[in-house]
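Recap from last week: sequence in, structure out.
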Amino acid sequence: MELDALERLERTAMAMVVQAIKDYLPQAATIFREETDLPQDIAEDVTREAIEAMGLPGLRDRLYGKVDVKKAIYVFLPEAQPVALMLDAKAEKPNGNRTATIQMSQTSMTVKMRRSGVEVAEPGGLEQEIRRGPRTFQVVTVIAKYVYEEIDGSQRLDRVVVACIPNGRLQERYNPTAQDTIWLAGRNAPTLGEDFRVRLSYRHLREKAAWRVEEIAPPHGL
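Predicted structure tokens:
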């Protein structure tokens, strides 16, 4: 698949995910307010439920990966393209809404950036495409962050920030060098032997392609 076609595919898949979350947002806001589970668990549940409620054109092929929702679907451009949708959910309070922390198993890009004054190039652990029998699935990775506040003992959903991480084949367009990057240092401690993690900068990604980051607010009063 040509790179421009891959970007169109990612943009269409992103739009489908955004619409699914928009449609389910009233229910999601109610669940956040009334449930007593941990916010992270709620975020995972409502994301899965939103995708199931939309009824995306699915395939029976089984996918693997360290994300919350792994779904083999068709995306129509208008021809049918097999997509491995990798959708991860996060929940954070407002002070963490400028970035999304990911593990390297959740991206197919090589993370090029400067960390503690040193240039790093950490390969992603996710495949760029997945083959299942006669089909080749293009991997599309989307992160949905549920930003919430604790008010009077309950959790009020403030907004959802949805971001589409570029496929690794788009490396030169989005992160060609350590200086030209969409990443910030992660919240791991290398001195303690913790696995490498990285933060996706919403601002840097928007500067590359505004459609890759979208904020969704619940209806007024929820």
